[in-house]
Amino acid sequence: xxxxxxxxxxxxxxxxxxxxxxxxxxxxxxxxxxxxxxxxxxxxxxxxxxxxxxxxxxxxxxxxxxxxxxxxxxxxxxxxxxxxxxxxxxxxxxxxxxxxxxxxxxxxxxxxxxxxxxxxxxxxxxxxxxxxxxxxxxxxxxxxxxxxxxxxxxxxxxxxxxxxxxxxxxxxxxxxxxxxxxxxxxxxxxxxxxxxxxxxxxxxxxxxxxxxxxxxxxxxxxxxxxxxxxxxxxxxxxxxxxxxxxxxxxxxxxxxxxxxxxxxxxxxxxxxxxxxxxxxxxxxxxxxxxxxxxxxxxxxxxxxxxxxxxxxxxxxxxxxxxxxxxxxxxxxxxxxxxxxxxxxxxxxxxxxxxxxxxxxxxxxxxxxxxxxxxxxxxxxxxxxxxxxxxxxxxxxxxxxxxxxxxxxxxxxxxxxxxxxxxxxxxxxxxxxxxxxxxxxxxxxxxxxxxxxxxxxxxxxxxxxxxxxxxxxxxxxxxxxxxxxxx
Length: 486
Ligand code: GLN
Fold this sequence. Notes:
486 residues; Amidase signature (AS) enzymes; 11-stranded mixed β-sheet; 13% strand; globular; binds glutamine
């Protein structure tokens, strides 16, 4: 077996037993990147010299018997999480040369746990998109089919994990951006409960929806990374002071006593691909066979989720992105004599078309005459969607569903049709609107060999239950062990 194919758990054991060194492992990962990333295009920035130095330091610590959960483990970081001294572009021309003077809290936590940062990975500009095609910097391809998208917006993270160009990665999820690319690339992804993981140093897209989470090769690795990044942070006023359990503790066989809810509305969605339907229903039967009780639940406001999200997220984005004006951050157009024209040119040159569309949409929806009709209405719908989940979770522990209506689509297929692109988020957006945790685990392949994911949703702060169900399912399948032919 090649070292870069190791899971975090296995690599951790081997490093601990001194069977391999972090330097060997990290070098193997960079060799792999050298060999295949010109085809996949996952990385925007590589930090090889720094990583090798960190790996060497990790080996010295290990020699002294000082080892944490991620000591010496090479990981990739979505390029909207601030890394001190390392470019953080958000996939945007406006931040192409931005080097943060500080680390996001999750980066400090990873570092304290000994992780090695391999580099920064591609994404839809500011997290806006479902295919990574909205990156202004480069194209990322799906490792399973190079003519297809990896999903988005954390497409670089999912592609890098799936093609073994890192052992695990961080992504961010505002409306599905961890779960959907994980599903399209055949890896595990989790969006934790809103407030579980600090957003300090995460470049804001829609602050009431954004959450950082792990993308990994299997469920155990997901639990390990979650252990490290979770917890209260006084620098993020929305992070919740709640104890972090050892999530690996819940990875035990047996689902007796667990009730799973199947939301009937999710299976009536127009455009649900038959291969997705089949894989997901088969996975549900498998989980039932493991001892879980299966019931039907209703999420009656599902049909309004896309509309509500695509008002709320652009509203928050229009406000968050006002800071990119050519004065405080990033690129500035210096050709204009007047201040107003400088703002105008900087922003129209610096932002791509999707970001501009959302800024306009959000600004319009928040304007004096329209606030009540759009933003307030969408917020009311958001409350109804939360209530749907509260009601459903009175009867069940987790909800199972598809992650996306179709497997990964072709590059270019939906890019000129924003509405179709938005509608593909139907299964994932609601979890962000409600703030609940959601996860994607590999559950099958389409006829063309494209990965399909199963979504598991749970109650606030019940990540442990998602992990337990995912782990039990994973133990009975080998979807997560299959690799793209690269
Ligand atoms: N696809 C959704 C959007 O474009 C979600 C993106 C995300 O989760 N960052 O907004």
